[in-house]
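Example (one chain per record):
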Amino acid sequence: MQLAGELSKMNLASLIRLVRNGELTGKVCLTQGASTAFIFFENGQPIHVESDFGVGREALLELFCWQSGTFSYIESSVEGTRRTLSADEALEKLLKEGLAHQEALKYLEQLRISPRTVFRATENANNDPFLARMDGRSSLAEIVQSLGLTRSSYLRRLQELVASGKVLVVEPAADAQGLQLPDWVISRLKQDNADVAQAIVDLVIWADRIKCWMYQADADLERLIGMLDKPEAASSAEKREQSFEPENSTFAQAAPTELKSEESTSAAAAQEISRPQARPPSYEF
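Predicted structure:
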């Protein structure tokens, strides 16, 4: 039997169920970018998993997080293949745990939580070593390494703690490119805005404005230097500017005369009004 396709159209759980229902023996090859993984089946039951990041149960759970890539099934003998998956564990239980692992990782990634994220517990640990280490100083990677935890053993637990509000993020999570700012930079950004992400956006906007101002200043400076290097051009520019002065000058000279004439006329009219008028002759009857 030949089987191939894309993981975006058939997830890993459906693929494993298909092989189980067919009681097939062979291996499934999964690829995502440069990563490759193999799942070996015997009579429809997965017996061994190997990938670039491990073998066995942990490797299988990580494969559930592959949302893209390709798969292909090759029917072949698996004689001599070592068993890294327990035959006592029910397959449906394993698939259910794999899907839960996938959802937990998706939830945390949406919150941009990474190994560099620092958490602070909001309640007593109650003999929970994982919660007790969330002191507001240690990163998630440091806690996991100190306790020797695997991803499958802490991922769902962390999802529960974050969703219930039992832990809080006390430092901004690293971005998708793994950017990590020094503490003094974060402190300086928070002086402008408590939201570090918005403070960075504002900083970029101001930087763009300053660039525009500098470009304009450079252009003006080059124009002035060009005028100084070419006195003839500067003289021509001055003449063009002065070509509008005669009309303005004539107006400036004529205006006082016209104003004086208007003042004389107004004064004469005032004297005419104030001069006593001759009374007409009176007649008596």
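Caption: The longest strand covers residues 35-42.
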